[in-house]
Amino acid sequence: MSRRFKSIIKSERPVLVDFYADWCQPCKAIPPILKEVKSTFKESIRIVKVNVDNNPFIASHYQVKSIPTLILFKEGNVQWIAEGVVDPNELSSVITRYINKN
């Protein structure tokens, strides 16, 4: 796994990682949801996209079996995982919990 990825997810601020592939049709529904989330939470969250075809070791390490998969990290630890397209309101609710968690 890349050192850069590890350093990104170790952040105190939550990091939402979108595991996707260019050929995946459901994955194409995620960017507008992430854009909405980013506009709501601004600098309180970092959003990172990981192409599973280009980064198979990262995907394998986190046992990403289907895409899209969203994983929320805080201080390097997995806090939440969702497979498939996620409702923006549910995603915002989850993020709010981890932004406010000490």
Helix and strand arrangement:
Elements: H1 3-9, E1 15-20, H2 30-41, E2 46-51, H3 56-61, E3 69-74, E4 77-83, H4 88-99
In words, what does this structure look like?
The protein is an alpha+beta fold. It has a single domain (3-99), classed as Glutaredoxin. Helix content is 36%, strand content 25%. The protein has 4 helices and 4 strands; from the N terminus they run H-E-H-E-H-E-E-H. It has helices spanning 3-9, 30-41, 56-61, 88-99, and strands at 15-20, 46-51, 69-74, 77-83. It has a 4-stranded mixed beta sheet. It starts with a helix and ends with a helix.
Rg is 13 Å
Oligomer state equals single chain
Report the strand count: 4
At CATH's second level, what is the architecture? 3-Layer(aba) Sandwich
Helix content: 25-40%
Unreliable runs: none
**CATH topology label:** Glutaredoxin
Structural class: alpha+beta
Number of helices: 4
Number of domains: 1
Strand-residue proportion: 15-25%
Under the CATH scheme, which class?
Answer: Alpha Beta
Short description:
36% of the residues lie in helices and 25% in strands.
Descriptive labels:
single chain; Glutaredoxin; 36% helix; alpha+beta; 102 residues; globular; four-stranded mixed beta sheet
